[in-house]
Every structure is written in C-alpha cells, then in structure tokens.
Amino acid sequence: MSIKTELQNTIADMVDDKRGILAADESSPTIKKRFDGINVESSEENRRIYRSLLLDTEDLGLYISGVIMFEETLTQKDNNGVLLPELAWSKKIVPGVKVDKGKGPLSGAPGDLITRGLDGLGERLETYKKQGARFAKWREVYPVSTHNPTPLGRSANAEMLARYAAVCQEKGIVPIVEPEVLMDGDHEIQRCADVTTQVLHAVFHALHCHHVSLEHMILKPNMVLPGKACRTAGAEEVAVATIKVLRRTVPAAVPSINFLSGGQGPEEATINLNAINQLGQQLKAPWQLSISYGRALQQPALHAWQGKAENISAGQQALLKRARLNSLAHQGKYEVSMEA
Ligand code: 13P
C-alpha cells in the first residue's frame, strides 16, 4: 500500500460526522495527578486496568473513532490477553500515540515553552507503527500573558509542529497537530482570540513550508475562551469567537478539527461544542468540528471507578454517557436536559 493510501485510509477511519477522539495519553506525572485525585496508586498495573476499562466499554466505537495512547499502553494487554491497540481496533477505534516528550522553557523567549522529542522520532514512529499505532499526537503549549507568546515563541513552536507532522506523514502516520493556547490567566476572550489567530496562522504557514499534506492531518486546537481567572463565557459567545478565528486561519483542506477540553468541565465542554457545531452548520463550516477530549471525557469515569473492581461497569457507563452526548453535540443536537 502506498503511503498516501495509508494516510487516506486512516483519515477515513477516524473522521466522520458523529464520532470523536478519546485522549487517554496522559504522561506518567499527569496520570499520577489524576489517580491521586481518587487515591489510587499510579502503578503500571493500575494504569493497565484503568485504560482497559476505557477501551473495553461496550458500544464505545459508536461515538469514538480514535484513541490517543501513551507509549506504555501500546504494549499492555487486557485481562483476556488482548493487546490494547487490538482491543481498540476490534471496536473500529483507531489506535494512536502521543509522541512528544513534554515541554520546557524556550531559551531566548522568557515565559514561552517548547516541546521536546524530535530527535529519533522517525525510528520511534516505525516501532509504534509495528505496535498498531496509525496516528500520532504532538502538543505545543502557549501560556498567555501581556507579552506571551512572543513572536519567537510562535515561530519556534510552529516549526516544531510542522517538522513533527512532516516526519509522521513520511512514515504513513496521520499527525494530530495540537497547538494549545492555555486557559490560565485573567485575560479577556478577545486576547485569547488574538493569540489563537496568530498561533494558528504561524502553524499553517510552517505546515505549508514543510510540505505537510493538509488533507492528511487533524488539527487539535483550543476553543476561544476567556482566561479562567477572568470569567466564564456563555456557549454562544464561545462559538462565535471560536468559529471566527478558525474561519480566518484553518484551510478548508483540513478534514477535521478536534478540540481539546483544556480544563473546561465535562458538561461545559459539551455545551460549547454543541454551540460551535450549530453555528458551524449555519455558516457551512468546511471541516468536521469534533472532540479530542481528555479530562472532559474521562473525569466522570475516573470518579465512578475509584480504583475498585466492582466499579468498572459504572466507570464505563460514565465514559459512554460523555462520549454519546459529545457525539450529539458534534451534530449540534445536544440539549442540557439530556444530562439527566
Ligand atoms: P484535555 O482535553 O484534558 O485538555 O486533554 C487533551 C490533550 O490531549 C491535551 O494534550
């Protein structure tokens, strides 16, 4: 099979008008934080049990088309000895993997961050592909302040995302490109809109310069929101601001935009997605507007599970509920009364 056909097939298996992506790729420090919240030790075995719970959820494939795994999960098995990537694909959920190696300060640009992990990426992708991964994810993070992100921060981060995406496509792996403008801070929604516009503009310029095929990638951006310490915006305001920025920056060739939840509550993230899709339909947005939520899909499942074998089914029901309601929001058909 040619590389192009491989990429096309993966996009076809991941992008439709009802399903979204489950981000279950928490790095070791992040999953420890989540497990600390329910007093569960972050051992390899507990991570295996928890991620098996997620992927073994009956009917999850009706609402979820892809799962982003942490490297470790690719080689873990469920209680029946089935590798977790195979378990996912048995439900028509495409397995993928987070490939960045975490963030640190960007020298020469105080306050900006940069992600590591490009060295040896091609070889790592070949290994992940043999383990079943068909797509990858790389996240760059942009803190917002009066002077961040700086022009250097924007161009350096865009360059990283583009170089990562180009290596992925060369290997037949669909890249999820994730530039995350953080919600932290007391800035107004307009500041988030301005920063997100500049960031996406730089990212798509770099993708173009690195000959990345826009038809064979997925964009994972933040929604446009006011800073957490400023206020909470209504869904309509979020939708108007988000769609305006996306229409100005994201080419129609990109098949799907899958938002991160970024610290929004589970219901808030669904309500906002629904409003974005209703407006997107009115304006004939050219891309799917779906999810790649981590916390907003998993939080209720984690809390229902509590690390106890007898709660596995409750955890799965909680996950399935969020997945189903987000699928409705993806279609602009969600209503808050459906939460009951
Ligand atoms: P959240 O939806 O919890 O922000 O996580 C998505 C993700 O993958 C961040 O990189």
How would you describe what is shown here?
With 340 residues, the chain is α/β, with parallel strands linked by helices. The protein has one domain (3-339): TIM Barrel, CATH 3.20.20.70. 45% of the residues lie in helices and 15% in strands. The chain contains 11 helices and 10 strands. Strands 1-2-3-6-7-8-9-10 form an 8-stranded parallel β-barrel, surrounded by 8 helices. The chain has a two-stranded antiparallel ribbon with strand order 4-5. Helix 6 links the parallel strand 6 and strand 7. Helix 7 runs parallel beside helix 8 (235-249). The longest helix has 21 residues, at 189-209. The model has no long low-confidence stretch (mean pLDDT 98). The protein binds 1,3-dihydroxyacetonephosphate.
Brief description of this entry?
This protein has helices at residues 3-14, 28-36, 44-55, 84-90, 121-130, 151-170, 189-209, 235-249, 266-282, 295-305, 312-330, and strands at 20-24, 64-69, 94-98, 103-105, 113-115, 135-142, 174-181, 218-219, 256-259, 288-293. It is of the alpha/beta class and 340 residues long.
